[in-house]
Amino acid sequence: MGKVFPALYGVVTLVVIWKAIDALGGNLYALALGAAAVTFSVLLRINMLFQPNSTDVFAWTLLYYSILQYIKTEKNKWLYMAAVVLGLGFLNKYNIVFLVAGLVPALLLTDQRKIFNNRKLYFASIVAFLIVLPNLVWQYQNHFPVIHHMKLLAKTQLVNVNRLDFLKEQLLFFTSSLFVILAAFISFFLFPPFRKYRVFFWSFIFTLTLFTYLKAKGYYAIGLYPILIAFGSVYLEFIFVKKLTWLRPVSFVVILALFIPIFRIAFPMKSPAEIVRNSKAFKDFGLLRWEDGKEHQLPQDFADMLGWKELAEKVDADYEKIRDKKHTLVLCDNYGQAGAINYYSRFSDIQAVTMNADYINWVPLDEEIKNIILIQNADDDDKERNKEKPLFREIRLTGKIENQYAREFGTSVYILLDAKVSINAILKGDIEENRWK
């Protein structure tokens, strides 16, 4: 059931693109071309792999569409629409701030700078602020954990991002429809009806430049492209109506032909063993390079799909043997492990937590903790549990994730039984240390 929602966001994103094409005067060919360009792209991969970025791309596309409609109609309702989308998009993922960071200088650079003379813009800004205010208050009350998260992200993942690789990735996301996006860029300067929309070109340039400078992950920028596909589809329809009409069917053949080789390696169509045996193509496209900057056996997104049920089963086996379940805590090394255990576990009361992300606020300190099922990553440097030995009467390693293709391969499961000291006090101290550092 959970996979319905990414697919649904993919569909509504396509609907927004169709609405943009319609607003720009596109007809059947432009609508069909836009649908093909979006469907046979990275968006299909995102929605198929059950990733949270589906909502983010939809929010970016809808916000750009709202700006498009305001430029076309100059009706203030679209400013309020943009404000609501921005607010809700922010609550989903802070990434949408980079859209605004690129859009503001783009507006100032073009004739659309007149928008800043419209007082309704500032009323709309208040609407957006009120929507995000509860989250800002929460961030303030918790000493802005987002700052800690961004520092940790920069230290452990973004440090491994190569700016040139980031730009190369942009070419892979919409490989089959690059000619449509290129047509959009040309249309802003050579197609008179689209010159007033030139702000979208500069917004793309500013946001992409900012992402490149900050060494962002490649997929952060995916939301930039759907609105460009709308412009490119309409412009190509105009060209192919006037001349070169034979290129209409050819354009669909090109999209499909270019997508097939990408589909064979970017989608989970082969078993892990097959990928390992035929890894050259995956390596050539940079798909084996993970966030840690190292080459691995499988693409990271594929490795992320493995090992979770195995982990939950091993934890369940330990949890079932513990008599005092009420005073037992499942403590994980990261939120992925905690989420997997809570999702796949047979026990509804297991409530796995971790000392990172939002789980840190849900560590149950209201009940005395006597036993812990501890999940530790394979790179843990205390495999003998010397840190915990003085705290518990019995410590045992009960299992490890054995799927060699899983990202969590080697992750260990320990049971720590019969605490000799107050574990609640220790956990409270750990929470404070991890929350505020």
Describe this structure in words.
The chain has 437 residues and is an alpha/beta fold. The protein is built from 19 helices and five strands. The protein has helices spanning 4-23, 28-39, 42-48, 53-73, 77-92, 97-109, 119-141, 145-156, 163-173, 178-190, 199-213, 226-242, 247-266, 272-277, 280-284, 300-303, 308-321, 335-344, 423-436, and strands at 328-332, 353-354, 371-376, 392-400, 412-419. The protein has a five-stranded mixed beta sheet with strand order 2-1-3-5-4. Helix 2 (28-39) runs parallel beside helix 13 (247-266), helix 4 (53-73) runs antiparallel to helix 5 and helix 17 packs across helix 18.
Mean pLDDT: 90
Q: Work out the radius of gyration.
A: 25 Å
Termini separation (Å)? 38 Å
What pattern of helices and strands is seen along the backbone? HHHHHHHHHHHHHHHHHEHEEEEH
Range of helix content: 55-70%
Q: What are the defining features of this structure?
A:
19 helices; alpha/beta; single chain; globular
Topology, please?
Elements: H1 4-23, H2 28-39, H3 42-48, H4 53-73, H5 77-92, H6 97-109, H7 119-141, H8 145-156, H9 163-173, H10 178-190, H11 199-213, H12 226-242, H13 247-266, H14 272-277, H15 280-284, H16 300-303, H17 308-321, E1 328-332, H18 335-344, E2 353-354, E3 371-376, E4 392-400, E5 412-419, H19 423-436
Parallel strand pairs: 1-2, 1-3
Antiparallel strand pairs: 3-5, 4-5
